Amino acid sequence: MKIIIPSSLVSLLPYFKMRSMDMNETEAIFRIVLRNLTLSNWSDLLPEAQQQMFEEVTKLISCDALPLGKKQQLRMSLDTLCSCVSEVHKNRISQLLILSAGYTIHTLTVVKKSTPVSKNDHSLDFLAI
After folding, report:
1. What is the pLDDT of residue 6?
2. 3-class SS shares of the chain: helix, strand, coil, % to 5
3. DSSP string of 83-108, one letter each residue
């Protein structure tokens, strides 16, 4: 069996096995993945390449080197793609969207105010930092 790798993925092959990425590698992978997530390019990818794109999106979303704005671009592309793909891919995209939401939500730390407002005041004031 002969596997044909789309030209858009050839430049990514050396990076697929790398776990830690510097900014140049991250940026290069981001551009290729974002381009492949467009519907016109997505439909040209082999199923194996589509799976690889999902894996790359997972890595990019969890990569600290990728700015939040670029993660949001990936999220928007996935959201757009979701309306035009099979049910299996919709489930995978939904998982990725949930993962990306986890990386973009800022957590608030709640701290109890140390001094009461008055002697009889037993209410709690909270401060979010």
Report:
1. 56
2. 55, 5, 40
3. TTS-HHHHHHHHHHHHHHHHHHSPPP
Q: Which residues contact 9 (CB under 8 A, 6 or more apart)?
A: 32, 36, 49, 52
Domain assignment of residue 1, yes or no: no
Instruction: Let me know if residue 116 belongs to a domain.
Output: yes
- Mean pLDDT value of segment 70-93: 88
In a domain, 2, yes or no: no
* Contact yes or no for 75/97 (Cβ under 8 A): yes
Domain span at 124? 7-128
Count of the separate structural domains present in the chain: 1
Token reading at 9: 């993925």
Is 30 a residue whose pLDDT tops 80? yes
